[in-house]
Amino acid sequence: MLLDLTHIRQAETDLVRAFEPAVFAGRDDAFRTASTVDLSVRIHKDQDRFRLVGTVAATLELRCGRCLEPFAWPVEAAFDVRYLPQSANAGDEEREIDEDDLSTSFYRDEQIDLGQLIEEQFYLALPMKPLCRADCRGLCPQCGTDWNVETCACDEKWEDPRLAGLKALIIERKKDDA
Fold this sequence. Notes:
- By secondary structure, the protein is an alpha+beta fold.
- It has helices at about 115-125, 165-175; strands at about 1-5, 10-20, 30-35, 35-45, 50-65, 70-85, 105, 110-115.
- It is elongated.
């Protein structure tokens, strides 16, 4: 999934590629690529600087943060990233990060890793807490029953066993005060 920059000769070049889900298999546990990844990019070239503007679209499979069931999450993310040669990344002194620095990456050996760019866009598109549906009830913390499917007979009132000693002191103090 490397983009060879030596083949880009014009100031603007369009690139459209489709990647099979197997290309992204085993890369991460946060998501799984469940469909073909469609990449559409316009490459702007200015000597040794490149700007990639485009979109990436796919369907990811995530695990629900409450019930742990897998569900589909469609992604269509737009990006605008500037690439500078690795030699331009010679940060001699400490400085504050500018807004432009957040959309700047570096390339080496006249290649840009499109896989890294795509994965980055997927991570940015992930929800903070993935939920299979808004009203997901989750799992019982005691027996692990999926409350979306069935109910369990566990006691709903749960007490933290780490605080049992403190609770005993409070009850004892109330008895002494009475």
